[in-house]
């Protein structure tokens, strides 16, 4: 099972790993595009106003531009620890046992505007580039990534659970991947799409999928696994699952 996670705009700073080595990242066939984008991001950082415009940053965020300027030489840490935010707080990889962490390493991967795809334990620096960024002189990120990243993801010989957000899923859709919609259910039975706390519940789901000893190979078996774990999961069509959470649990 391969679980695709979205990245986060913000990243944990620092790290104690060696500087970025693109050749060591998951899916080495993505290296040429990675090299092109890393070079473009580093070069762009030399022009701070242009970098702000391309990356959608304010002057108060110039530290993000400074990170990009040194991303070739700055320290790294495992990708699953680099990304921050609500989903990653709920995933909470630092609390996993050694056995769970090893299992997660083989199952979790993160969609990335800069690297295309990184495995959980791939060593990456802090950087700033989002799926919607437009780098001067280059095609759109979707145009760069879709031809090569789609082939990589299509080659997965296991069940793919795609938890990426829309912009990152659009970089390279995965036909046949399981997707998950999160709905809250009120006491009267009415339902609503969960917005912000969608990330919390997907983080919890990712933790479960990363650590389970089960190996589902279809959407039906995945639904059964999640139900055994106590989740209210529905399957109405195709490869889309619906995770239903009580309205009272939406903010927890």
UniProtKB/TrEMBL annotation:
Pfam family membership, one: H2O2_YaaD
Q: Which domain of life is it from?
A: Bacteria
Identify one Gene Ontology CC term for this UniProt entry.
Answer: cytosol
**InterPro entries from the xrefs?**
YaaA
Q: Which GO terms describe its biological process?
A: response to hydroperoxide
* PANTHER family the UniProt entry points to: PEROXIDE STRESS RESISTANCE PROTEIN YAAA, PEROXIDE STRESS RESPONSE PROTEIN YAAA
- What is the protein name stated in its UniProt record? Peroxide stress protein YaaA
Organism of this sequence:
Modestobacter muralis
């Amino acid at each position: 099972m391969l679980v695709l996670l979205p990245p986060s705009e913000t990243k944990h700073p620092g790290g104690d790993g060696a500087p970025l080595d693109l050749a060591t990242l998951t899916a080495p066939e993505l290296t040429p595009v990675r090299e092109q984008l890393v070079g473009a991001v580093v070069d762009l950082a030399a022009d701070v106003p242009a970098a702000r415009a391309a990356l959608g940053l304010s002057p108060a965020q110039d530290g993000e531009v400074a990170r990009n300027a040194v991303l070739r030489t700055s320290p790294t840490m495992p990708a699953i620890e680099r990304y921050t935010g609500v989903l990653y707080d709920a995933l909470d990889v630092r609390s996993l046992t050694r056995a769970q962490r090893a299992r997660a390493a083989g199952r979790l991967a993160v969609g990335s505007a800069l690297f295309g795809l990184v495995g959980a334990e791939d060593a990456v620096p802090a950087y700033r580039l989002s799926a919607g960024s437009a780098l001067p002189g280059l095609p759109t990120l979707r145009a760069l990534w879709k031809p090569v990243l789609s082939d990589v993801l299509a080659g997965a010989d296991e069940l793919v659970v795609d938890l990426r957000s829309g912009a990152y899923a659009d970089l390279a859709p995965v036909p046949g991947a399981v997707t998950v919609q999160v709905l809250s259910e009120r006491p009267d039975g009415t339902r609503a799409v969960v917005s912000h706390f969608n990330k919390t519940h997907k983080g919890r789901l990712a933790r479960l999928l990363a650590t389970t000893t089960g190996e589902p190979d279809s959407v039906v078996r995945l639904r059964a696994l999640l139900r055994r774990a106590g989740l209210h999961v529905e399957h109405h069509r195709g490869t889309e699952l619906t995770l239903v959470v009580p309205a009272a649990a939406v903010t927890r």
